[in-house]
Structures are given as structure tokens and as C-alpha cells.
Amino acid sequence: MIEVKEALEIVAANSSVLSTQKISVQKALGYVLAETIYSPISMPPFRQSAMDGYAFIHSRRHQFDVVGISQAGDHANVKLKENQAVRIFTGAYVPNDADTVVMQEHVMVNGDSILIAKMPEPFANVRNKGEQISAEDVVFDANTLITPAAIGFLACLGITEITVYKKPKVAILVTGNELVKPGKKLSKGKIYESNSVMLQAALQTIGINKVKVHTVKDSLKATKKALQPILKKNDIVLISGGISVGDYDFVKEALLKNGVEELFYKINQKPGKPMFFGSKKDTLVFALPGNPASSLTNFYIYVYPAVKNKMGFSNTHLPKIVRKLENDIVNDTGKTLFLKALYNETSVTILEGQASSMLNSFAIANGLVIVPHDTESITKGTSVTILPID
Amino acid sequence: MIEVKEALEIVAANSSVLSTQKISVQKALGYVLAETIYSPISMPPFRQSAMDGYAFIHSRRHQFDVVGISQAGDHANVKLKENQAVRIFTGAYVPNDADTVVMQEHVMVNGDSILIAKMPEPFANVRNKGEQISAEDVVFDANTLITPAAIGFLACLGITEITVYKKPKVAILVTGNELVKPGKKLSKGKIYESNSVMLQAALQTIGINKVKVHTVKDSLKATKKALQPILKKNDIVLISGGISVGDYDFVKEALLKNGVEELFYKINQKPGKPMFFGSKKDTLVFALPGNPASSLTNFYIYVYPAVKNKMGFSNTHLPKIVRKLENDIVNDTGKTLFLKALYNETSVTILEGQASSMLNSFAIANGLVIVPHDTESITKGTSVTILPID
Fold first, then answer.
1. Where does the MoaB/Mog domain start and stop, copy by copy (chains A, B) (predicted)?
2. A56-60, A152-156, A243-247: lowest mean pLDDT where?
3. Could B357 and A148 be called an inter-chain contact, meaning their C-beta atoms sit closer than 8 Å?
């Protein structure tokens, strides 16, 4: 049995980043860049007006004849004399001769001529070519996370394809003779299998949308056989159940017989103690406890950062926030506790129903409060660390 | 022109929740419940062992003969006498006669009999029927957000279908003769169209995955015609560009001619001032500024809560966090500022490149710092409010 901190270090040390793939910018949300991107163009690609108004050559003059027009999308390079101006719109090409744009609100129009009532500074309201970025300059360094704004910036430079780290292929293997598929009749002694849909949904929150679910009977032979192809085809294998110490828990043995190396088994925490973590080549195996709340807790604490590591993220863990505690906490277990809790802008309340079999409190919780194994009590009003799960 | 606060109120007042639909629990992540859910079964459905160990009738006795076994999934209702015990596993059916389970770590086994070394309290390690929830009890009230844990809880009760509020149908209409599709050659005076992929990605972050993008030329007639079917088929219409004061910005006129009621036009903020918000029946229209950074800012401030309102969310806005400022801020505009910023666990730094045309800073920002219109300066070290966008 190891402490949470050590378990996290072992997971991180074994979660190497995946290989790369080319992907269209349009589909790249949530991926991490695997290359440095250089700009193919300058942005803006030409001198642009930042305002609707008039472009002219700055001088002491206030009165101008309007001799042309430059709309967005045009390339009207009107020749200008000192007493001439061009009607211009936001984003439009500023004629080569012009150096300044006055906004239309500061101009009085009289037929084909204008009088500038409030003279702007020289070069005002003109966006220079390459003001945002010059051709060949770095757009993004490798390891940048692709956000909506990043997609917008890449697209505005005309970039349509980028190289990113792949998302891991994840499979779930469900064990347990007691399990019945929701929708079917529940005979005596059986319960509904809920961990696979729960874990699929949890994976979906971090962008893993296609997950194959396998089920297997509680027998060493069946589990061993089922694991073989699953270990070959996937980067991360989540196994639900069959990993506590009962005589009918075959998962660990089946894993070892399939050449999976044990990296740790059991963590000094509550819930979620009976977890096995191992690897076979680059494939990671998390044998999660069968109890739903334990399973989901360990997903957030261990699987979540492993997925993010594989995808090349720099921040791989759930962010930590701090709030003032509304209840007293007693920890007489000597274990690290992950307590289902509801936090708001200022404080956090520990919910009732912390048993590892109970999902009710998890379903209304928006965070997990961490109580270190060597902390025996925390009094109301103390600041505690929360992992937000909403 | 109105203030940000008023604009937010108008958007909220006009974003009524959509109608409902039945959906499979498996696909319900991120939806909001539109019904109260009652449990069809008790959970656990029978008295369950919480441990691997032995079930027995609690008395002063310490020695027992093991007369049977109860595995998870079984329904072995072994008859027990006072001196008899049953080998039992976590989650398995506790025989009707037994009242207590002792964990195997506290037992010495000698052939077919056991000696309990550390006697548990009466009724220990037995999960009572309905301990988590009783049949007919409320599982979730209406308006509960469906999280991974909620999906798990519904599935473990055998529930396969629920009624939720629909997601809005969203379309994007892109205007601007200056725009060229990324991947094509950029002729003089043109720029790449990036707002549609950026807004699609932003919508994806809140679960709106299918968005139709339409493009139209800068003419009143074309815009008017294009809008007609789009307004009919969608719950939310985002229009990109064509809404500032230039002579070639036809969007507002085209909207009014299509029977869209103006709810506000222009907000006292920077970036993002030239925005039109209107409605036609229950369809909302956001005519967003063409400048990418303005467009994305207004997405987060106005479109985001409207989508969440339509879907029945209680918390519709981006959460607000507070950090200490690393720079001084001067606001001589009299407008509410939304500044691209990078925050960490303790502080926040305002980024360079705040111009409304610039996406670079947005692409590396993880938050928007709000500077109220009536705040003229904020000094370094002051706590400021941030909208996290990561």
C-alpha cells in the first residue's frame, strides 16, 4: 500500500505522451500542439483602417475633397494629393499614399468634401501590416493547448492543418457476475451495471468520446482471454471491479498473466483504496474499484492526469481551489480522504453519504475536498483544498 | 448605448428555456433534467455485504462453522444457526438470518471453522436495503445538471431514459466581402474568415456540436434573403460582422426587415461595443462585431449565458474568480473593459495586445479581467474579478 502522493508520481512517470497526427484546425479543439507553428502571412496582410472614416495624408490642412472609396475587401489604391481623402471602412485597405484615418464621427461632410472637426494624431487609426504577426514569425510554440481563440488565430492566418498529440484510445472492461444492464429486469442478488456509462461520461468531459466497453464473467480464464486483445489495441485500459481481495477477484492475476507489470496495488486513501495500476509497453492499466463512488474518485485523481499526460497537456491535474470549511472534519482512518462536497464562492460544505458505494452525494457534489492522511481533524472555518469536478 | 449590466439583464430576460425531449441516460451528459426522477428500485436492492468476510448472527460467540458461501451476484439465502457463518464477498446478498459481517482480516480460518479475533459491532458491514435510496423516493429534482456521477446514479437504479431540456439549434451567418476561406489564396485587400470556426469551437465547449455556418455577401438584399430561413429554423442566430456604423453594414436593417425586434444595439464596453441583440418569437439574434477578439469576448459574456438559459441551467454565467493584480490598470474610456489575462493560483497578469482585432493575446489568455466602466484605475496588488475561459 502506498500514499496518494507516491501513486500520483508513479502514474505521471509512466504516462508518456502519445505520437502525433495531422488534424484539421476545425477539429482541433482540446488537442495540444506537437509542433511550432510559423505564420504563412503577415497579419494584417496590408495596412488596414481601424475605423469607419476617411483616409488622408496628415498635414495642417482640415478640409479635403473625397476622391474615392475603400471598402473592406477592396483593393482601391487611390492616388491621393495633399488635399484629397478617401472614404474608408473598418478593415479596408488604406491607400499607399495615406498615413492617417479620421473616424467619421469627427468629420463634417459637405457634398464631396469634408471638414475634419477633431484632427487625429498622424498615423492614427491605421493598423500596420504585420502589426499582429509578421510572416515567418512564431504563431504558437509546441505544447500550446488549442482553444477557441487559438483556432480563430490559426484560421485568420489561413492555416488549415496542424500537428497535434493524439488522444489515447481508451477501453473499459467491466467484470462482475452480479451486474445486469440497465433496462433489464433485476433478479435477486443482482445490481445494475452503472460504472461503464459513468466512466464513459467522465472521459467525455476531457474529450475522449469513443470508448469501447467490454464485459466479462468473473472467471480467471475469461478475464485473461478478454484482456489480451484489449491490451493490444488501447493506450489506456480501465477495468471496473474484481480488484479487492475476495476469492473471486481474478483481475490482478489475469493482468499479470497477460504480461502487465504491476506498478502499484492499493493506495492509502478512502474511498478508492483497492486500485491496481500497471503497464504493458506503453499501455496503462487502471483496475478501478467496483464501488461507483470509489471508481469515479479514482478516475478524477489518477486516470484524468494520465489521459492529459498522454495528450501532451502541461497542466494535467484538476485545478485546485481553496475555500473555508463549513463543517468540522474528523479523520481517524490514517488515510487520505476525498470527500464529496459543495462549494460556492466563499465556502465549502461536506456532503452526507460519503460511503464508497454511494453515488447520490457525488451526483450533487461539485468538488472533492482533500484531507491528507496525516491530518486527524480540520475545524470549521479552516481553508481546505478542493478539486472542482463541475 | 447601454451598460454591460443592463445588456446582461436584457439577454437573460429574453432567453427562455427550450422545450423538452426524452433522451437516453447514456447520451445525457451536460443536459439539464426537465422532470423529477423517482427511483424504480431500492438501492441497494437487498441487504449487501460491505466487505469481504463472513456473515453471522451476532452473539457472545467467537467461533463459527462455515456452512455456505455468498458471492456477488448470487442469491444464496443460506439458513443459519447461531454457531454458523457464511463466507461472503463485497456486494453479495447477506442471508436473511445473518445480521453482521466480519471482515476477513479480523478472522482466523481453521478448515471449515473460523475464529473471530476482533469482533465487530452488531449490524456492522451490512448495507441495508434502500440505504442509499428507497423505491419511489426522489432521485433528482427537475433542473439537476446531468454529470458523470448523475449518469452513474441513474444507471445504477436501472433508469435508461430521462426528460431533459433541449439544446438550442444554433446557426452562424458570416458577412463580409473581404473574407476568404482559410486554405485559399489571399488576394490583396482580403483577409481570412476565422470567426465561424472560432465560434463553432466556443459553442463546442458548452456542448453545442452541430452548428450550420452560412455566408452572405455584403448587400442588404442578399443578407435579408439569407436570414429568412435561418431565423425560422434556429433558436439562436449568431451573425459575424456587418454591424458597425459603416455604410456597407446591412445586417441591422436586414434583421429589422425580417421582423426581428431590436432589444439593444451597442454596449458601453471595450472590446465588443458594436453588438446588436434582438429576437423574433423565441429565436435570439446576436449580431457580433466582426473583429475576432470582440466577437469571442461577446460570445463569452452574452451568448454563453443565453445558451445555458435555453438549456435550463441555473448557473448560466462563467464562474467568477478573484486574484491579485500584477499590473496597474488605467481605464480612461468610461467603458467596461474585458482584458485578456493570464491568472495562476494567486495572481493575474494583464496581457499585451488588447486591441479588438487581435487574437494572439486571447489565444494564450486563460481569463478575462473585468474593469467596470466607472473604475478609472486599479493599482497593482488589488483583487480583481476574472472570468476564466480555460
1. 171-309
2. A243-247
3. no
Kindly indicate the confidence band of residue A72, based on its pLDDT and cuts at 50, 70 and 90: confident
The Cα–Cα gap between B306 and B317 comes to 9
Q: Which residues of A touch B154 (CB under 8 A)?
A: 182, 194
Helix, strand, or coil (residue A16): coil
Task: Name residues 151-190 of chain A within 8 A of B (Cβ).
Answer: 151-160, 176-180, 182-184, 186-190
Provide, rounded to the nearest whole percent, the portion of chain B with pLDDT above 90: 89
- Do A271 and A156 share a structural domain? no
C-alpha span between B299 and B312 (Å, rounded): 18
> From the CA of A162, how many Å to the nearest CA of chain B?
12
Number of domains in chain A: 4
Average pLDDT, integer, range A335-358:
92
Contact residues, chain B, for A301 at CB < 8 Å? none
Whether residue A246 is predicted with pLDDT greater than 80 in this model: the reply is no
Is A36 in the B-facing interface, judged by CB distances under 8 Å? no
Q: What is the mean pLDDT of chain A?
A: 95
B190, B251, B301, best to mutate vs chain A, most A CBs in 10 Å: B190
Cα–Cα distance between B215 and B220 in angstroms, integer?
A: 13
pLDDT per position as a tens digit, B248-268: 678 999 999 999 999 999 999
**pLDDT for the residue B248:** 65
Q: Which three cell numbers stand for residue A324?
A: 473555508
Do B381 and B271 share a structural domain?
A: no
Measure CB to CB from residue B29 to each of A201, A355, A359 and give the nearest one. A201
Q: Model confidence at B245, in pLDDT bands (50, 70, 90)? A: low
Burial A212-237 (b: 16+ CB within 10 A, else e): ebbbbebeeeebbebbeebbeebbbb
Residue B60 burial (C-beta neighbours within 10 Å; 0-12, 13-18, 19+): exposed
Contact assignment for A182 to B160 by CB distance below 8 Å: yes
Mark whether B24 and B159 lie in a shared domain.
yes
Q: What pLDDT is stored for residue A249 in this prediction?
A: 75
Q: Do A197 and B245 touch (CB under 8 A)?
A: no
A185 CB-near residues (< 8 Å, 6+ apart): none
Whether residue A271 has a cis bond before it, omega within 30° of 0: yes
pLDDT, tens digit (0-9, with 9 covering 90-100), for A270-292 = 999 999 999 999 999 999 998 99
Q: Phi and psi dihedrals of A148, rounded to 5?
A: -55, -40
Chain B residue numbers with beta carbons less than 8 Å from the beta carbon of A365 are: 149
**Could you read off the pLDDT of B127-176 as tens digits, one per residue?**
999 999 999 999 999 999 999 999 999 999 999 999 999 999 999 999 98
Closest partner CB to A160 (pick from B182, B201, B247)? B182
Pairwise CB contact (< 8 Å): A132 & B357: yes
Lowest mean pLDDT among A138-152, B71-85, B186-200, B300-314: B71-85
B197 and B230 share one domain: yes
Q: Is B155 helix (H, G, I), strand (E, B) or coil?
A: helix
- Within a domain: B351: yes
Residues spanned by the domain of A142:
20-42+133-165
Q: Is residue A390 part of a domain?
A: no
Same domain, B145 and B272: no
Chain A, residues 194-253, CB within 8 A of chain B, namely: 194-195, 197-202, 204-205, 218, 244-248
